[in-house]
Amino acid sequence: MNLASILTRSAERDGQQVAVKLDDVELSYAMLDGASTHIAGLLEDHGVSRGDRVGIMLPNVPYFPVCYFGALRAGAIVVPMNVLLKRREVAFYLRDSGAKLLFAWHDFGEDAQAAARDAGAECVLVTPGEFEPIVGAATPRVALADTEEGDTAVILYTSGTTGTPKGAELTHANLARNAEIARGLFGLGAEAVTLGALPLFHSFGQTCAMNATISVAGCLTLLPRFEPAKALEIIQRDRVNVFEGVPTMYSAMLNLADPGAYDTSTLKVCASGGAALPVELMRGFEAAFDCKILEGYGLSETSPVASFNHPDRERKAGSIGTPVEGVEMKVV
Prior knowledge:
2 domains; Rossmann fold
């Protein structure tokens, strides 16, 4: 299996549906799928083959899923990276993972290019208006690489609480199954409009927002940098019905001068993770926005969901819920 099949299946099912949007820029499933074939071809032109590592250092912009699914399509292993990493850190990630090529956002090009030179990798800058002709000139690779369930699809770097970051290897099956679990938890279908406010380079945003939404042919509306007023504006404008965030996001939205000035009536489900959600914050947000927050727990190594409060079961405030299907937990 190949994780990129979640995109190809949705494109076959409803190619004209909007897959990803950023304000006025919209990519349909057919466009996203087609662009990923050109990325796969571009990587082949640069000598990237199955099992090679490809770094992606991009903010929440449509280029992220294009490069992500294009790399997977080629059979490469994606190494997502925080756009705020500095030269030394970028070089470490590239060197440690053995990355052959890095897609880097133009605003961080100086550090990214220097780090790639340090690590012996190639750097391709993603600059709007300049990147498209480069990608379009590549011969599209339509066929998905014949990867196995147990093959590594993504390497997520995590440092835990101490020490140097270590790469957690997540397989195609790990990530596909976790996206399936997220779909069930949040009740996602083709009508889903998910606010992509969580960083896509992080496992929460990547699996629970991007992959889960793409897998049901829903719409992912992106927010490159979280600002509470902008988030509420997008919820109102795009009629967002799924919001996933960390407690600081919920607090910022609740504590706006006038959060009630925005129409958030379409919100059906919200999910919180990354840190403990204070009970008073949960209750205050739910009262103000008339929606239910489901809190859960996960980690990079588990792709990431491990336990969650379930929408169809009793919910306990201040709890991370119960283990999701396929997960066992033990108190020691």
